[in-house]
Amino acid sequence: MLCIVEITPWHWAAFVATVVVFLALDLGVFHRAARVVRFREALGWTALWFSLAMAFAGLIKATRPKGEALEFVTGYLIELSLSMDNVFVIALILAYFRVPKEQQHRVLFWGILGALLMRGAMIGLGAVLIKQFHWTLYIMGGFLVFTGIKMLFVDDDGVHPEKNIFIRLARKFFPVSHDFDGQHFVTQLNGRRALTPLALVLMMVETTDLIFAVDSIPAIFAVTQNTFIVFTSNVFAILGLRSLYFLLAGAIGYFRYLKVGLAIVLAFIGVKMLLGIWDVQIRTGVSLAVVVTLILVSMAASIWAARHAPTSPPDAKPTEPPL
After folding, report:
1. Which helix (H) or strand (E) segment is 265 a member of?
2. Rounded to the nearest 10 degrees, how much is the dihedral formed by the CA atoms of 119, 123, 126, 127?
3. What is the tens place of the pLDDT at every residue in 7-41?
4. Residue 159 pLDDT greater than 80, yes or no
5. How far is Cα 252 from Cα 306, in angstroms, rounded to an integer?
6. C-alpha pair distances (Å), 303 with each of 123, 248, 254
7. CA nearest 200: which of 243, 160, 244?
8. Which residues on neighbouring strands pair with residue 95, listed in sequence order?
9. I want to staple 267 with a disulfide (CB 3.0 to 4.6 A). Which of 57, 148, 170, 235 is the partner?
10. Residues 37, 159: Cα–Cα separation, whole Å
């Protein structure tokens, strides 16, 4: 191990600057022109983001106190697992609005950029609340148990833009065109500036991530209250979300039991937080093993069920978007 490095504002600034550089390269160089992202390319980007996350974990292991690297990996895998459910919801949104495949990368890019900003703010707020009011952890734990049980017994009822307050406000104050205008979020309609359907999709993606963040942010605080670990593990998981979408979106029907696994993960993490009331601690390594096992079992059960089903797995069936 190298000498212990104290995390300073300069480390925060360097990490954020590195993320900005990666995002600039992604949009300005690798995906400058609108095009379809193929499976092989998505697999490569997914492997790259995972490798970078593990390399960062190695750097933490070499420069920070014992246990922080394991906390980072556990938090990263929890966030990445919960992001998989987010991926399938995003797939339904893009199918509902019939977003052309060559435009999907651009809207997901800006969606993830917004997600990074929102989650950064939520992590900062959560860290302050936990520091000032430690019992906030137990409220978060109870919320996660409730959310996990709800996920087990309440089915999603599809995509409903008309129920989204941001979509309703946008339609109230701005004209919305019926047609896409390439990668533009704003276009001209009857001589006036108007939002394109791509702008509505971006709003849906952002609000969807906000809903998922309400679950995932408390979940990682169950692993560690180290704000730097919470933030960096979240960022790496979110950065890999876009490539994960292109990797998994076409296989929604093969992961029918993933939601069950994620629900149990949330409930387990919630119980882990609530046990703190009685000073009962579940070690980080045990938490990591439980989370990985639950996700792998749910995925294996999904694939087995899909292969033995009498009919092919269902795909997302878009309906006519009411613009």
Report:
1. helix 258-274
2. -170
3. 999 999 999 999 999 888 877 777 777 778 888 88
4. no
5. 11
6. 35, 13, 5
7. 160
8. none
9. 148
10. 24
Best CA proximity match to 59, nearest among 97, 105, 15: 15
CA distances from 38 to 94, 194, 246, 247 (A): 16, 31, 7, 8
Q: What tokens appear for 177 in the block?
A: 């065109």
pLDDT tens, position by position, 88-122: 888 889 988 989 988 898 898 898 889 999 999 99
pLDDT at residue 2, rounded to an integer: 64
Q: Please state, as a whole number, how many other Cβ atoms lie within 10 Å of the Cβ of residue 275.
A: 15
Single-letter amino acid, residue 253: G
Cβ(234)–Cβ(123) below 8 Å? yes
Residue listed under structure tokens 């960022």 = 235
d(C-alpha 276, C-alpha 291), whole Å: 19
Between 163 and 132, whose confidence is greater? 132
Residues 97, 265: Cα–Cα separation, whole Å: 31
Q: Encoding tokens for residue 256?
A: 């029918």
Q: At 252, which amino acid appears?
A: I
Entry field: residues in the chain = 323
Judge whether 91 and 249 are in contact, CB under 8 Å: yes
In three-state secondary structure terms, 34 is coil
The residue ranking higher by pLDDT, 315 or 213, is: 213
Alpha-carbon distance 75 to 105, whole Å?
Answer: 26
Q: How many CB atoms lie within 10 A of CB 238?
A: 25
Asked if 161 and 321 count as a contact pair (C-beta separation under 8 A), the reply is yes
Residue whose structure tokens are 């600057």: 17
Look at residue 11 in the predicted model and tell me its pLDDT. 95
Work out the angle at residue 100's Cα, subtended by the Cα atoms of residues 95 and 105, and round it to the nearest 5 degrees: 95
The token pair at 204 is: 């849906």
Give the DSSP per-residue string, 47-79: HHHHHHHHHHHHHHHHHS-TTHHHHHHHHHHHH
CA distances from residue 257 to 88, 152, 164, 312 in whole angstroms, order as listed: 13, 10, 27, 16
Are 219 and 266 spatial neighbours (Cβ–Cβ below 8 Å)? yes
Q: Is the pTM of this model over 0.85?
A: yes
